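User: My advisor, Dr. K., asked me to get a structural model of this assembly before our group meeting. I'm new to this, so sorry if the format is off. These are the inputs:
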Amino acid sequence: MSAPAKGRKYLYIAAAVIIIAIIGVALYYFLAPPPPPQKVKLVVIGPWSGDEAEYFKAVIDEYVKKHPNVEIEYRVMRAEDVASTVPVQFAAGTTPGDVIFGWAWFIAKMGREGHLVDLTNVINEKEYVPGIVDAVKADGKIWGAPFTMWLKPGFWYRKSFFERHGLTEPKSYSELVQLLEKIKGIPGIKNPMATGDGVGWPMSDITEHFIIAYGGTQMQLDLISGKTRFTDPSVRKVFSDYLVPLIEKGYFSEPIEWTTVIPKWWAGEYGLYFMGTWITGMVEDPNDLDFFPLPESKGVVGGADYAFVPKYSKNIDAAIDFIKYLATEGQGVHASVPSGKIPTWTKVPVDKLWKPMQSVYTKITQRGMAILPDLDDSVGGDWQRLFWDQLKLLWVNPGELDSVLRTLEASQPKPT
Amino acid sequence: MKPKNLKEEVLLFLGPPLTILAIFVAYPILGTITLSFLSRGSFTLENYRDVLFETIPLKALIVTNPGPHPPWGALIHNALWILIAVPVVVLLGMLLAYILRKTFGSSIILGIIFLGMVLPGVVSGLIIRFMFDEYIGMFPRIFALFNVPLLSKTWTIYPQSALFALILGSIWLWLGFSVTLYSAGLDSIPPSLIEAALIDGASEREIFIKIIVPQLKPVTIVVTLMTIMWILKIFDIVYVVTGGGPGGASTVLALIMYTYFASALEHNKAAAVAVILAVLTLVPAYWYIRMVLSGEKQ
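Assistant: The format is fine. Below is the predicted structure of the whole assembly, which you can bring to the meeting.
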């Protein structure tokens, strides 16, 4: 073979090798399985710890099962801590988490200030309990996603305690007083009703229940908007004629840390305990539990936990997907475990709720009670702490009623 | 060494710490002071005026119409705290240190007293809550034995007693510091002084008043100044035990600063309270530093 022919032959071989290599690479590219997608890590911040955190973890686990490329780290931070620390981080353009739970007023405020992702296209308002999304709306946009809902339906009692002492649910205020007097006479009882304490919210829940029962559902809404003032004679009447007499007669206990009082109440040191529906998940036997609202009440306070996505999140798309799940199917998961919550997303069927919550829900709907927003949570901010603190004062010094009402009115927001 | 090299060395050694101090100490201080004078984009005294004349119980520095019991305003509460706690911490610390050094097993008692100093504020706060609880608290139980109904209840939930519960609790917390310093001070008194007094026929009481107390004067000044500074800054136990309540009956300056910052989200007013608090703390701090520096010179 001549030298040029030999050179041409090598050239063909080289060209063939290159072509085969290109085809091989192309085939590998098109036929080989795609590399596993990179894991996305989301930091979720919520207020739940202990058992409550476990119930929320069930919601996270369900999501992660369907989204194996998402890793979720749950961190605990109370709403008051979120409100106090997060604004500073937002000001610096950072965020401690990708999905954060917080107070509704706080979410609306942060949204208005431009720190949050707009969720208007994520949340379909028509699919939720009426009015529940309003709390997180500002400037015509939705800044927060509603999660499950708690209710503060009335006074909880042990069925066995009532049966043992021949007690029945009251049908009027005077019957309530008679019931309290009967409980007071039972040996071992310290006070007929336990008063929970903490930063102060349990007393505000009791007060709001009295406002709704004896001032009416509209009074609750007007106090939130500021249209009705705390010094109004109609508001004073609720306190002076219904709540304060019970405090003065010692029917309520002194404020005791709200979780430590549960075993005492369960053991029979107190007959009744006003608390939210989450109590169902905190007692030894939820089947022995029942409640009654104040007989004249036409409404109960209910409120959702709300989550938001800060615009400083590094995984905004994943965070939005997760928050959408929380606001919809995730609610079904949370309501099916002993969280003591009901869904705000109306597409969750009632039979999916945890059994004790099904009966609570049924009792409230049978009575035709309206679900109203929480007064102090709706007003929020500085006034909320003042409200709690002044009620603590009222509980131990009921004679200071007028001073308490004047102080609350002085700082109460004016209607816009 | 050449002066140029000396300059370089000074720069080399002082540069890094001064830079760190400038960034992490000077800048935040100047930033806070600036913030305290800023209101709606202009320099003004408005924030100071607002915080000084605030009437909301949880934020009031001075209550304009004070009643027979708290709330009287955070400034008055802090002042009252100093008036009660400082003499007790000084006197009790000195007496305990003096008595315990002659007592068998005193180290165990000293250890218990010192426990308050080493516990985290939140834990101390919880212990104080228990100390004054109607059912398990030591103080209400003692008063129940003597049939004093007003003080047989949970102290921390009544406006009449909440502040005093905190003050008593803080005395326990700070007593360890006082006793430790006085114990060290007692060790430094020359035994010959006491021996000479004994030879001259001085009684134990006379030795304590005329020799021990004057000899411990420098320690007393340190304990007094440090206790005042500590009381002015006090926050954690108040936050945990009462949150400033009920009805603002136990607010203190540091808590008011936190309320403006974290609850009201009024950062400029929080800065104004911080500056007021810093100025008040600087008075004892100035005397303390002056004393330390004069001691070094001697």
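One thing worth pointing out at the meeting: The mean pLDDT of chain A is 91.

User: Perfect, thanks a lot.
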